[in-house]
Amino acid sequence: MSEPLPRMPQPLFACTPSRLAAFDCPRRYRFTYLDKPRPASGPPWAHNTLGAAVHTALARWWSLPRAKRTPDEGERLTDRAWSPLGFKDDAQSQRYRDVAARWVRDYLAEHVAPDDEPIGVERTVAAPTRRLAMSGRVDRIDQRGQDLVVVDYKTGRSGVSVDDARGSLALALYVVGTRRALRRPCRRVELHHLPSGEIASFEHTDESLARHVARAEATAEDIVTATDTLQSGADPDDVFPAAPGTVCSWCDFRAHCAEGRAASQPVSPWAALPPL
Fold first, then answer.
1. For 115-138, how does the pLDDT look when each residue is reduced to its tens digit (9 = 90+)?
2. Which of 145, 186, 242, 261 has the most crowded Cβ, counting Cβ within 10 A?
3. Which of 111, 191, 109, 115 is nearest to 150 (CA)?
4. Domain-terminating residue out of 212, 238, 265
5. Taking a C-beta distance cutoff of 8 angstroms, is the pair 107, 116 a contact?
6. Crossing angle of helices 71-81/90-111, nearest 10°?
């Protein structure tokens, strides 16, 4: 009688922080990652356009020759990276283009030393855990003494706080990935809010990182269970239910979700722009 074959190890769940975050609403996760064809998303959001231009300008600034790394050049890079997508009209787009360029110029003048070369800019980091094959792209990785620091740019309406830095699953997973990819000590995370100039930071411990990893792994387990159940023939809406609330106003798939529409009000594509 032959011996039973050993059980194959369970494959790691490949994910990014944004993929895990999408499961806050299981239906949104299904629409984003599982449904084929994927449901059509709504119109572009102006606040995303603004954020993308700022991030692009700050990334390109570090690729300039040292002599050109000036705040004014950051302003010009923002102009070049600009897109009108999501804005009410050309006049609104131009107003926010000017504001975003000023944010970048002021941030570079007040918070950035052009001689302090980052260890990474738009750097992809990755690390396996017991259950995950995690990867993500970090806005900037600085060297401060012997340690590395994860820096994340923010352009939203509200400011940033220590609680935001402490509670961010994405930033914690970036620390884990940075440690693995660069083989250097890393525990500090920073949120740099360009509209206000605020910087919120937090120093992770091995224990706080372990809590975030456990949280990510628990989410991954729920995703895998739901996906397997769906593939066995279960009703998609039962396995991946909506999590309706006022936040549904900002969902790209609101048009495809009756529960989300009932729980929220429609908003314009420029509604989340910071006030001028």
1. 999 999 999 999 999 999 999 999
2. 186
3. 191
4. 212
5. no
6. 150
Q: In angstroms, rounded to a whole number, what is the distance separating the alpha carbons of residues 29 and 206?
A: 30
How far apart CA 156 and CA 126 sit, in angstroms, is 26
DSSP string, 48-103: HHHHHHHHHHHHHHTTS-GGG--HHHHHHHHHHH---TT-SSHHHHHHHHHHHHHH
Please state the pTM of the whole predicted model.
Answer: 0.93
User: What are 19-35's pLDDT values in tens digits?
Assistant: 999 999 999 999 999 99
Question: What length is written for the chain?
Answer: 276
Rg (CA), the chain: 21
DSSP classification of residue 116: S
What CATH number corresponds to the domain at position 168?
3.90.320.10
Query: What tokens appear for 192 in the block?
Result: 């740099």
Number of domains in the chain: 2
